[in-house]
Amino acid sequence: xxxxxxxxxxxxxxxxxxxxxxxxxxxxxxxxxxxxxxxxxxxxxxxxxxxxxxxxxxxxxxxxxxxxxxxxxxxxxxxxxxxxxxxxxxxxxxxxxxxxxxxxxxxxxxxxxxxxxxxxxxxxxxxxxxxxxxxxxxxxxxxxxxxxxxxxxxxxxxxxxxxxxxxxxxxxxxxxxxxxxxxxxxxxxxxxxxxxxxxxxxxxxxxxxxxxxxxxxxxxxxxxxxxxxxxxxxxxxxxxxxxxxxxxxxxxxxxxxxxxxxxxxxxxxxxxxxxxxxxxxxxxxxxxxxxxxxxxxxxxxxxxxxxxxxxxxxxxxxxxxxxxxxxxxxxxxxxxxxxxxxxxxxxxxxxxxxxxxxxxxxxxxxxxxxxxxxxxxxxxxxxxxxxxxxxxxxxxxxxxxxxxxxxxxxxxxxxxxxxxxxxxxxxxxxxxxxxxxxxxxxxxxxxxxxxxxxxxxxxxxxxxxxxxxxxxxxxxxxxxxxxxxxxxxxxxxxxxxxxxxxxxxxxxxxxxxxxxxxxxxxxxxxxxxxxxxxxxxxxxxxxxxxxxxxxxxxxxxxxxxxxxxxxxxxxxxxxxxxxxxxxxxxxxxxxxxxxxxxxxxxxxxxxxxxxxxxxxxxxxxxxxxxxxxxxxxxxxxxxxxxxxxxxxxxxx
Length: 652
Hints:
It is a single chain. The protein folds into two domains: 2-193 and 445-639, Up-down Bundle (Growth Hormone, Chain: A), CATH 1.20.1250; 224-330 and 350-415, Rossmann fold (3-Layer(aba) Sandwich). The protein is globular and about 75 Å long. The protein has helices at residues 2-15, 25-39, 50-64, 89-114, 120-143, 148-163, 168-192, 230-236, 242-245, 264-271, 284-289, 310-316, 350-358, 375-389, 450-471, 481-505, 509-532, 538-554, 557-561, 565-592, 597-614, 618-639; strands at 68-69, 84-85, 195-196, 201-209, 212-219, 222-227, 255-258, 277-280, 303-306, 321-327, 360-371, 394-399, 404-410. Strands 9-8-7-10-11-13-12 form a seven-stranded mixed sheet, with helices on both faces. A four-stranded antiparallel sheet has the order 3-4-5-6. It is an alpha/beta fold. It holds the Pfam family Spermine_synth.
């Protein structure tokens, strides 16, 4: 189940650009499907052939009707404002959501049928071990840059192992959809010429730039970079020279470039006299394409490359620089399917710019450039830099169309040389600088956009109807209201953990995989402890959970970032996983006593889906505020906890 869920999140997002902005859409559909699968147990004995058939249909639909950026549309990508080709979001997103639910409902129904055959916690234990195996397998494939045809082949083999029937008709219902999935994904791999990084589907094509042949790079169907010679770039686009013109200190002994990509910005730095360049790029495939750059910057002995997260590098390096440059570091993708965090979100906060200032040499400068589409974005970033550096930065809007702008600040005012037009400051209505707790640069107002509210409301309505149709009357789940709320709280804690570790250790796919695995290990540990030892009563464990939530609230991220990395890891694990462990001891004890294992587990999974919807409240209250929402949810679970009748002991 978990391997299939991760593969769906990864593959659909690479072909449907809207999924880069509707963050956990496939995740919500997956949780709904898994919950429905458990609730469906006992209502039929037929094998769920509908699962591979739906997967084959979804793969074919997406390959025939992908949603990509319209390259003939003027302007640049800015959040949800983009011209696209393919089906509109109101059509393709419901198809993906419903298909994900139906696909995951199949294996979930098979898992649910095993639950009554084992003791409650023994069944849950195997389920968790399987989930960890799914994460490990998908992580290994990401490390190897395996294309989706490999993912599809593994799914086909799993379907055959789980659904292989004695009769020919049933075999056809397994083999034919599997062949369609593998064949379609193989065709995509061969015809698109794509490179599959842990973050993107990367494609290239030859293009022309001012009469010079260059390589255009697209990620997930979005124009992203061009491998252009430094001389041509400097001649035709003034923004690339401005960071060097705005610094009073002319010597460039050490330069740091975050978002080095295919190497053009590195080549420019070398042409400007940099004696050494640290080039930081989070995506290994984009860095690999830099070896094909016409200037060959990565082959220069003056360049050291670091395939890692830019914010993590800033926090962990002890080196000082004459110039730190954020070179168009817009990722166009999410950290995971479980949060609204983009790969570059923590680069544009006030704390990130303070970290950059701390790594500058005396007389050094910090600069960033990009295409911002809206002027308030330029002013917001300039105001953020002003707050971090303590003085007004230089702001150069090179072109009004697309708001091509360069923002530069010296470590002191004397270290920068601004142009004739001084920045007048942020006008009224400019959003405040983004903090690490709410790193949503592109969200102008402190609100949940109406499109999200409408979408999530429709998801909840569809889910209610689906539960009624598939599982029957809601009364079946009424005794398990506390388990439902435990699922809500669990996903909120998981989201807080993912985003917190992304800040502390980087938004790389490795960190993300470790955190997801760590959450499941904490859950498995809670199950094993509950199985083997007599744990305190549930009210006591709820008290431990409350203490864990309070600890997580009281420990600030700034304090954790100030610790050495090994000590930071120990402290972060203790703070993040204590409430998760306590919550899952509560769940394990409660689940062990439930008279209906499949219905109670299904209710918990549906609660997790609702928790995924509540995650969007982080846009309002920040990620730290999710702890308050989780505390309220867990309080509700405690109130709904079935009371043991006097003189009748609870089952152990």
